[in-house]
Amino acid sequence: MNPCFQNSMRTRFARKYRLAALALILAFSGNPLANARQYASAIISESHATSSSHSIDSDPSTFSELEAGTGIIIGIGSYSAHIEMKFPEPVPANQTSYVRIEAQDNILPSLMGGELGNILAGINGVSLTGNQEFSVEAKNGAAVVLSGNSTNPISFSGERLKVVVDANNHTYLAITPNQSYQSIRISNFVGNLVGLGVTKRLKVWDPYYVEQGSSATPQFTSYDSSGITLELLEMGGGAHNLERAIDGNQDSYSTLSLGVVDTASSITQRAYLEGLSQPDDVFAVRLWIDPEVMQVTLGQGIRIRTQNGANAVTNEVLQSLLTPADIAAIMNGQPFTVYITPSAPVDRFVVTLNGLLGVTASQGLDIHEVFSIRIFGDDYEDAGKSTPGYP
Ligand SMILES: [Ca+2]
Q1: Fewer C-beta neighbours within 10 Å, C or N terminus of the chain?
Q2: Which residues constitute the signal peptide according to the record (predicted)?
Q3: How many whole angstroms from 341 Cα to the centroid of ligand 1?
Q4: In this predicted model, what pLDDT tens digit does every residue of 197-213 receive, in sequence order?
Q5: Dist. CA 48 → ligand 1 center (Å)
Q6: Distance in angstroms (rounded) separating the CA atoms of residues 301 and 265
Q7: Ligand 1 centroid vs 325 CA: distance in angstroms?
Q8: Ligand 1 mean position, distance from CA 270 (Å)
Q9: Domains of the chain, with CATH numbers?
């Protein structure tokens, strides 16, 4: 944002904010269901699914369970499970739908890391191949337009298909096909390392999407990385406590760490709105950077993008967003907040830390919060959160 505009906006904000905030927060805070969720409404195929109607009852508190099992004799009687849930209307290309899932084996935290999945699984003491396995498909009629399989964690990397968490650390699939789709099919399998007479269950909640969000508060977050090694992860590097970047608490934070960078590497954290924002929504990203690193890198390795689905709307290097006050805060070891006005609908915020070679200090970034400031006429609502950094 242009610093002059930002300063004038801050002055306006300071004048208006205190009187307007309470009423607006009371009017708009809280209930995430205020977003008009479009839920799947029909089961078009199922096998070994219990309470399947609970995945299409528009009730976030109920779920179905897919049970896969090995037989009692080798090679005989094993079975997989699936459920395919259909939306009332075709969902447009690039519209993200969400479906909460929970696996019996603890494989989802490793899959969150996308291409890091197998390394993380090793650290977490699980295997993505041979135990519980699942797949997800977005379909348009009989055609599969996007798919992923837990045995191939790279299918859960990038913008189109991700394992994400909400502020409560509940796990969802975020599904963003580049073609129109109308159903979501989830299948649960037992791998070939599972002994005889064993079942594996997968809980599936109701798939839904939101076209135009009435709240611009991020609901989900995920990450990806490149060039991260097992050694770095074992030393505590990588991405940690992702959900703390969207938990409504400006003191808590996620941590992205590349360690001392000696090879090309990066970590990206994304925050997702349930539906598209309004064009004049202002977004804020509160960060902390080690002053020693800032002195050397000047924030050049950090980029902040806003996106509509997978498509970039704004893409700026951190350095260009910093005010002199922000730089002073960084040098004092304080968190600081940068503001972005996409001027177009967006539903995704992407913070990327690119490691800069030749820096002897450990390179990292804490993301305290990604939040919105929705403008109503001359007034502002900051999604129910206090806004340190604003005067
Ligand atoms: Ca936080």
Answers
A1: C
A2: 1-34
A3: 21
A4: 999 999 999 999 998 87
A5: 40
A6: 11
A7: 21
A8: 14
A9: 3-30+216-381 (2.60.120.260), 38-209 (2.60.120)
